[in-house]
Design goal:
six-stranded antiparallel β-sheet
Length: 288
């Protein structure tokens, strides 16, 4: 993982931008803790000889010593989790609530009558019927919503084959708000409203369909390009994938470059020498 950095002109950030940066830092700390726990698990597998290509290389006393070291680290991670939760609770207290839509009084279809001429009473003007659609022509761009949007997705099916340079298909678990949209007719794409900031986290349980060497990457591809700032891809080892299923986790923050234009299509794309067998996949998108 690269070291975190503040954007240029960080001292001139607004209150909302500063809160967004704090929430993003909490997400990155959670990702770092998951890597630490994964490393501790691999240390136990190595000392027990259960990693592919290794054999038991420790006596019972060594195993107990490593187990004690792992226990101490898990306790430290648990304490860190409590501090992160406390930090997030305090940040959410200062996040502004979405403004409630202004109340517009219903106009009277018949305006107050003006003084009629002697012997005459002007009738009320006819009321135009409300417009119910459908609207001709292309669909308009999605208007901003006051409600924070969230979307939870899961893999389209278990043990699906994910070929290189293709998008991963999803099915919806839950959804709220209108700035994040998923269409079952295009299950590999998620539509995002530009001008917003989103946190995207996905977890994949995958294995290589065939033996291969080198590394592969998983990209968050946006169409059209350049609406959101580019995020680093997730890199993984194809050699380790050949020995059995691996769990891949990644957290990204999408910062908008512009608030103009219509919805942006976002998809998860595989860049590797061989296909992957996706045993389980989950992705969460949250507007911040």
């Amino acid at each position: 993982m690269s070291m975190p950095s503040f954007p240029h002109g960080g001292a001139n950030m607004t209150r909302e931008e500063a809160l967004t940066m704090i929430i993003a830092s909490i997400a990155m700390e959670e990702l770092a803790l998951s890597h630490i726990l994964n490393a501790e698990g691999e240390k136990l597998q190595y000392i027990l000889g259960t990693l592919p290509g290794t054999s038991p290389c420790a006596c019972p006393q060594d195993v107990l010593a490593v187990n004690k070291s792992v226990t101490a680290l898990v306790e430290a991670v648990t304490q860190n989790q409590m501090m992160l939760k406390n930090k997030l609770d305090h940040v959410l207290e200062f996040c502004p609530l979405p403004p409630s839509p202004p109340h517009k009084p219903t106009p009277d279809p018949c305006p107050p009558p003006s003084p009629p001429a002697p012997g005459l009473c002007p009738p009320c003007p006819p009321v135009s019927p409300p417009c119910t659609g459908p609207f001709p022509g292309p669909a308009p761009c999605r208007t901003p919503s006051c409600e924070k949007s969230t979307l939870q997705l899961t893999g389209h099916r278990e043990k699906a084959l994910w070929t290189p340079d293709s998008r991963l298909s999803w099915r919806q678990r839950s959804c709220s708000g209108t700035d994040i949209c998923w269409d079952r007719n295009a299950p590999a794409q998620v539509q995002l409203n530009p001008g917003k900031t989103y946190v995207i986290q996905y977890t994949l349980n995958v294995c290589a369909a065939s033996a291969a060497e080198g590394t592969g990457t998983i990209l968050l591809r946006q169409s059209p390009c350049g609406v959101f700032a580019d995020v680093p891809p997730l890199c993984f080892s194809l050699e380790r994938m050949a020995h059995g299923p691996q769990t891949l986790q990644h957290v990204s923050v999408l910062h908008p470059r512009t608030d103009r234009g219509c919805a942006v299509d976002l998809s998860l794309v595989l860049n590797a020498k061989t296909a992957l067998c996706v045993e389980r996949a989950m992705m969460d998108l949250v507007e911040i």
